[in-house]
Amino acid sequence: MDATDRHEALAALTRHIESRYHARHREQLPALVALAERVEDVHFGDEDLPEGLSLLLRRLIGELEVHMKKEELLLFPAIRRGGLPGTAEKVAAMRADHEDHAQEQAEIRRLTRNLTLPGGACRTWAALYAGLEEFLADLSEHIRLENDELFPPFEASTDA
């Protein structure tokens, strides 16, 4: 693949990430917060309750929104132009955010006992965990695409 084809492929990947993953996360998270709040209210005191999940998801909405806006307004336009001065630093910042998101994913799994429904769980609880499973899979693939395919050509060389 020549440089022009590579550039076009990476530009297309940024558009795919925005339309598939950014848009989807913006849909998923508010609905998941609402479900988590409902489960936490109805099942308050239940030993299997993923207590604090709604707060974690609400915080994640803010963190992901900031992260996605940085990509949409700063990083992706630079990538579409073939990389501009400072692109490597922006990529490094996005990778650091991805590490934070991985910790949040682990916390979701911890709170939910790896998305294991308790016996007799209501439909809302089941819908919450099904939605979380989809969200976590989407977020993992989103991060993988960026870390493994989009970012490497724009990272600072480690050669001295």
TrEMBL record:
Its main location: cytoplasm. The keyword Cytoplasm applies. It comes from the Bacteria. Residues 19-152 form the Hemerythrin-like domain. Transmembrane segments: none annotated. Coiled coil: none annotated. This is Hemerythrin domain-containing protein. It comes from Tabrizicola soli. The lineage of its organism: Bacteria, Pseudomonadati, Pseudomonadota, Alphaproteobacteria, Rhodobacterales.
